[in-house]
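Researcher: Going back to the complex we discussed earlier. I've cleaned up the inputs and rechecked each line, so this should be the final set. Can you rerun the prediction on the complete assembly and write out the structure?
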Amino acid sequence: MELQNLLVIAVGAIFINNFVFSRFLGICPYIGVSRNLDSAVGMGAAVTFVLTMASAVTYVLNHYLLAPTQENLFFLILSLSQPPDLTFLRTIVFILVIASLVQFVEMVIQKSSPSLYKALGIYLPLITTNCIILGVAILNVTQSYTFIESIIHGISAGAGFTLALILMAGIREKLELADVPQSLRGVPIAFIMAGLMAIAFLGFSGLKLVP
Amino acid sequence: MSALKEFTKGLYKENPIFRQMLGCCPMLATSGSVESGLGMGVAATFVLICSNVIISLIRAIVPKKIRIPIYIVVIATFVTIVDLAMAGFLPALHKTLGIFVPLIVVNCIILGRAEAFAGKNSVGLAFLDGLGMGLGFMLALFILGTIREILGNGTFMGIPVMSSSFEPVLLMVLPPGAFLVIGFLLGFFNWIERRRTARG
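Model: Rerun complete. Updated structure for the full complex:
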């Protein structure tokens, strides 16, 4: 039952509600970085990595510090009469945690794996302002996912983003040779193609996964 | 004279959506109808003006090295204000916009203006810049929302405007419609610019 639930979340995030084509998160890097296959793979890997970490960290923060649960640390340590509701601080706390997490991940990778750092290096700082990270963190809370579900949701959101990026990069490499009308060259044709791909992804919405 | 220029540049010449390609995600996601597009535009404009003014006021005391985190905290504070106010006074709109209200924090227009303009200019100019950029963003959302709502639903602000024989193109209010409309709109603006440069 548990496993089935996780599968529903994963397939939902990758195909049915693909983060680029149906939720409109992460469009800026999607249009900017999808010019060639190598940078698309690099960006996708960096985003997936940060998403997974961010899902775990924001879940812990929300559950133990912000949300009015029985395990709220302020409630336990200060022995208050009832758990405090600090959820109004969520946006500020999440964005600060994500920004510092990206910095931290960058430093760790630089120390521990210089080759990976070289591959991901330039994409890491860009990720802070990628709305997909904050979007997934907030969705995890609003859908009230458990810890494991949050992490699976983060990984599959990253996989869906990478899939969209790679598909787009493949088409755009071919498009370099195509005879596109002058005014539509560059970004406009990228949006139009994204629209056509979104139509294809609409087909997945027919999938019925809820048992 | 230059103050007027700071205000008007956001509307067309440096329009955040059509010219600078900033803030695409909320623009695509909330332009399904004119109403939700305008709601998003007003919310983002409010945050943009407030954060521009505050950042311009504190620009002398902000250490250069940690300016970005400080800007983000200022922006996030105003986003929280908008989020709570909208949930209290306009619950229906708050529900339609969903997670895109807290996501105004990562709207690149706002951080972009803080970094490129408000951190270097006086309060008055920063206010005008924020107002102009915000109105430019709202204008883009309004155009996109109008096209999508009329084609996809046959209505404008909820009022039917097409004849009864008009068959709504459902695709336009679905996600693909947003990509297609913005693609062709950008192409159209490119075409105007090219004709202008070819003439003069």
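Model: Worth noting: The longest strand of chain B covers residues 155-156.
Researcher: Good, that matches what I expected from the previous run.
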